[in-house]
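Practice problem: predict the structure.
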Amino acid sequence: QVQLVESGGGLVQPGGSLRLSCAASGSAFSIYAMDWYRQAPGKRRELVAVIASRGSTDYTDSVKGRFTISRDNAKNTVYLQMNSLKPEDTAVYYCHAQYSDPLKTYSYWGQGTQVTVSS
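Answer:
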């Protein structure tokens, strides 16, 4: 069992920066692929960034060059550094952990943190 707690959201002006954190409890954090998703009002939840257990990363096109995902396995924490924020980045951001073995996929979600980009 993994519990995820996000923090770092808030209100920021366009062009500003925020860093989201996701602290994981439980064992074996390093084996999980960690993702950040977001959901804006009236829209579907979308994958923003992913970091594999071995550290490779990928991003949705709209955030490439602006967002950076990273992880610190010693602290059981994954981060999302968000720069050059735009109003369209406004959403609830969710942390997600996933691990699959031959028998089962383990998937856990955080409660979400609100990011609002507005002047």
